[in-house]
Predict the 3D structure of the following.
Amino acid sequence: MEAIDRLLLANSKSKGKRPYFFDDPAVERVLNITLAVAMEHAVTRERLDTIERLLIAKGILSRAEIDTYEPDTIAAEERQRWQAEYIARILRIIQQELEALENPENNRDVEDIAEELGRT
């Protein structure tokens, strides 16, 4: 399987119950949250590095200007909103588990669904 296929599969919504790799669900949640944070951070860091290098190379900003920037009120509010959305994405695993508890009828195994479809 090519790397890009794995990336596409990782972002698709799975059907059925979520697979677990650890016996303790708390460990599983922490792992999922940690991996989500790591991926978000890696993408953000790469984009930030690109922007900083372009700004410095074009003489638009210096490293010191970037390091000493202080946001105004509007920028600070926008950052705060973004952080709330970011935390929601990171904690998505917990939200999904709550949804599964609230809607147990949606928590069917893929094998059960396949068997049911095979009978029709």
